[in-house]
Amino acid sequence: MSEPSDPRLFQYPRDLPLRHLLRAALLIALVATVAPESHIGRSGSHLGAFILVAIVVASWVGWLVAQDRGRPVVTAGALVVLAAAGGTLAPIAPAAIAFAVVAGVGAAMAFELPLAVMLVAVAPVAQLISASVQHRSLVPVGGCVAAALGGLTIGLARRQAQLRTEQLALVRVERERAELEHDRAELLGERNRLAREIHDVLAHTLGAVSVQIEALDSVVDSQDAEQLHARVQSTRRLVTQGLDEARRAISALRDDAPPLVQQLKELCAGSDAELSTAGEVRPLTPHVSLALFRIAQEALTNAAKHAPGAPVSVSLQFSPGAVSLGVANGRGSGQAAALGASGGGYGLQGMRERVLLLGGTVETGPSGEGWLVVATVPA
């Protein structure tokens, strides 16, 4: 059973074979330096020195393995043993003080500073006890304290550097995630925009074609070939205009559409509506022109569907900082066109979406005996 993870334990990157090779090389170099100084052998104090060196090697390896596997208790124990063994060897092999430095580095990198200090403090304590038992000078104990503090300082600096690297990586990941979300939002927005364009083009064209088909149906029984031919031509013209509308939508998306007033004139001419302008006419941005044109188109389509034969007027008013479009229709014949009940109910919703995207307002509702649509956008 694996040990529970400890949030105080700093995890090293686990796929760093080069780091392990460097640590192994450092261990070999230290052991090769300490072994001759401690005079290891098979008996007496020489055997004790040999055992201490073996303990150093085992605790070093245990520290690395436990750190990689995220086992804080084993890591702490291995560092304590490493520091204690190094401190015990220091009176007979001064180079062994380097193990206290390594233990300090490892403890500071793996644990919070208070715990790291407690783990490494065993090194000077072990050296003090070892020197007292062997009746050796206690002066080098101060050097062991300094070595342990130096190791802690190095380890703390390395830990902070690794933490900064991880934080930078997290920031980079969050930035990339934010960019992906932004791109996704733009894609969804473009999808909605294209859906509105398709809806408006089809709704207007099919609505007008429906009106013409109704008129065509009314003259079929009259056997008036000339009037019938005129209605067929009118229906064909409306279909052609629908194709032109699709091309115009693409042009608007490419920001090369004609001026709004010109578009409204052509639209009103094909819908038997009157157009009036007020204020100083000025160029508008493509997004504003397209939105107002589509709103006028939707309003005219609704008038043809729900109030066929009613007079329709379109007004465009320019004022400082804003432009308003109004579409008003009177009472129709009292019988809705064939497409009066058609559609998904997205016309008014599409109007509001267009205006809200531009920071404007739209009002719809009855006016007198008819219906009024007024859209105002900043421009």
Number of helical elements: 11
Strand order of the largest sheet: 1-2-3-5-4
Helix content: 55-70%
Order of helices and strands: HHHHHHHHHEHEEHEE
CATH topology value of the largest domain: Heat Shock Protein 90
How many extended strands?
5
Q: Round the mean pLDDT to the nearest integer and report it.
A: 78
Q: C-alpha Rg, in Å?
A: 43 Å
How many structural domains in the coordinates? 2
- Note the gap between the termini: 69 Å
Largest sheet geometry: 5 strands, mixed
Task: Give the percentage of residues in beta strands.
Answer: 5-15%
Task: Tell me about this structure.
This protein is α+β, with helices and mostly antiparallel strands. The protein has 2 domains: 122 residues, no CATH class; 200 residues, 2-Layer Sandwich (Heat Shock Protein 90). It has 11 helices and 5 strands, in the order αααααααααβαββαββ. A 5-stranded mixed sheet has the order 1-2-3-5-4, covered by helices on one side. It is rod-shaped, with a radius of gyration of 43 Å. The two termini are 69 Å apart. The relative contact order is 0.06.
